[in-house]
Structure formats: C-alpha cells, structure tokens
Amino acid sequence: MGKEIVQTDKAPKAVGPYSQAVRVGQLLFCSGQIPLDPTSGQMVGESVEQQTTQVMNNIRGLLESTGLGLHSIVKSTIFIKNMGDFAKVNEVYSSFLKQPYPARSTVEVSELPKGALIEIECIASFS
C-alpha cells in the first residue's frame, strides 16, 4: 500500500520537514495544526478560543482539499499549553463537530511551535 502526500493552500504550509497530511489506503493522517493563517503564515488570535477556531478551520481546509469533511475524523489529539483551558477548547471544538464524536486524547504540553496555545492533529477516514 503506497502513501500519497497531501499539499494544499487551504491549510498552513509545513513549518518543518513534514507533510501537511499523508494518505495511506482509506486513512488520512493529518499533521498537527497550529493557529496560522494559511495565506499569511502569521499566528491568529491571542485567546485559546480564537486559536482553537483557527486550528479547526485549518483542519477543515486540509480535509476538504481531499474531499473529506470534519465528520470524517475518527481520532484527534489535542495538545494544549494550559489544561485550565480544557473547557474553553471543548466548547469551540464541539461547535465544529457533531455526534458521534471522534476518539480523542488531550495532553498538556510545556511548549508548542511559534508560541501557540493549542495544536490539534487528526486521523480521518475515506470510508
């Protein structure tokens, strides 16, 4: 089974040696998204709510570039700088998704790229 690299201008360009997403069979593995504007490459928002909204919009753009949507996510991992922001992140996250929700992990980390407050990666299914 081969892998197909996904590149789109609907999500920020990779800021390191990785692909925006990789398709293998019926699965799409999306690299972590931070709150960067896809056009300017600049950080969006100062609050965790604003940043989460931008991250979810980036994920949606990445998925839509392959013909998928947010409903196609089967697993996500959220990295947040402050676990005290958990409820705020949940509020924004759940406004983008409908039940049944994907499986998910949330982890507090000490630092994220470019000083972001949040990063989300996901796996989506074409089936």
Main features:
globular, 22% helix, six-stranded mixed beta sheet, 60s Ribosomal Protein L30, Chain: A
Fold topology:
Layout: E1 3-6, E2 21-24, E3 27-33, H1 48-64, E4 73-80, H2 86-96, E5 103-108, E6 118-125
3D structure, described in words:
The protein has a single domain, classed as RutC-like (60s Ribosomal Protein L30, Chain: A, 2-Layer Sandwich), CATH 3.30.1330.40. Helix content is about 20%, strand content about 30%. The chain has a 6-stranded mixed sheet with strand order 1-2-3-6-4-5, with helices on one face. Helix 1 packs parallel to helix 2. It is α+β, with helices and mostly antiparallel strands and about 130 residues long.
Gross CATH architecture: 2-Layer Sandwich
Structural class by sheet pairing and helices: alpha+beta
User: What is the share of helical residues?
Assistant: 10-25%
Ends apart, CA distance between termini:
16 Å
- Compute the number of helices: 2
Sketch the topology as an H/E string, one letter per element: EEEHEHEE
Segments where pLDDT lies below 50 for 5+ residues?
A: none
CATH superfamily: RutC-like
Spatial extent as radius of gyration:
14 Å
| Major β-sheet annotation | 6 strands, mixed
Q: In percent terms, what proportion of residues is strand? A: 25-35%
Number of strands: 6
CATH class: Alpha Beta
Question: How many domain regions?
Answer: 1
- Return the CATH topology: 60s Ribosomal Protein L30, Chain: A
Strand order in the sheet with the most strands: 1-2-3-6-4-5
What is the residue-averaged pLDDT?
96
